[in-house]
Amino acid sequence: MTSSGKEKNKDIDSGAFALSGQLGKSIQHLRKTYNLSLSDLAEQSGVAKSIISQIERNETNPTLATIWRLSQALDVSIERFLVQSDEKPFLEKSTRADTPILVSQDGKFKLAIIGWLKTVEWLQWYDVSAEPGGILFSEPHQRGSIESLSVIEGVLEVEVGSLIERAGAGETLRYRCDRPHIIRNIGGARAHATMVCILKAAVME
């Protein structure tokens, strides 16, 4: 083999090692985010606990089938698993024109999607404004999801099942959003808040 061929193989090996290391970090991060033990993930994925441990420690190169099983168990795409980290400084700006706006059926609630597209599978956040009397009906998110509504101005009320609670400026309401829920502006002025939705945050029996 020529020296150039050896160098190419060396680069390939180095790249594979880096990719495998990033995969292990991603799996470990998601497993801990979902509060899963190695045994839990092994049971849900069908991948041996020892293999998962080796992957997380970057001691083995998993097959594509193994990666697929783990991605299904953690409810993420394979593409997300295989994205390499970038250690370079990162600074990104979104303009007002780049920010999508969701509007409630009554036209009185507006949700600006200020969350990052890359986190949409597990974390979403919004800038919320509501006119007096506005009502926002929401369908259930996936099981275990939690929503956090922090009021900046005005008074908002949240209804989840038989529970109803209100919050004013400087107060926060947290609630399960894996069931139908309603947010109302019950004050006499415009309300402003931030809302964060953590998908699969916890299973609260």
Number of strand elements: 10
CATH structural class of the largest domain: Mainly Beta
> What is the chain-wise order of helices and strands?
HHHHHEEEEEEEEEE
* Count of individual helical segments: 5
Instruction: Give the strand content.
Output: 25-35%
**End-to-end distance, in Å?**
62 Å
Given as residue ranges, the uncertain stretches (5+ residues, pLDDT < 50) are 8-18
Give me the CATH superfamily of the largest domain: Jelly Rolls
Largest sheet: 6 strands, antiparallel
Number of domains: 2
Could you tell me the CATH topology label of the largest domain.
Jelly Rolls
Give structural notes.
- The protein is an alpha+beta fold and 205 residues long.
- It has two domains: 3-82, 434 Repressor (Amino-terminal Domain), CATH 1.10.260; 96-198, Jelly Rolls (Sandwich), CATH 2.60.120.10.
- 30% of the residues lie in helices and 27% in strands.
- The strands form two sheets. Strands 1-2-3-10-5-8 form a six-stranded antiparallel beta sheet, with no helix packed on it. A four-stranded antiparallel beta sheet has the order 4-9-6-7, with no helix packed on it.
List keywords for this structure.
205 residues, alpha+beta, 434 Repressor (Amino-terminal Domain), 2 domains, 6-stranded antiparallel β-sheet, 5 helices, 30% helix, elongated
Brief digest:
This protein is an alpha+beta fold. The chain has five helices and ten strands. It starts with a helix and ends in a 7-residue tail after the last strand.
Per-chain topology:
Elements: H1 3-33, H2 38-45, H3 49-56, H4 64-73, H5 78-82, E1 101-103, E2 109-113, E3 123-130, E4 135-138, E5 146-153, E6 156-160, E7 163-167, E8 172-176, E9 181-185, E10 191-198
Antiparallel strand pairs: 1-2, 2-3, 3-10, 4-9, 5-8, 5-10, 6-7, 6-9
Helix pairs in contact: 1-3, 2-3
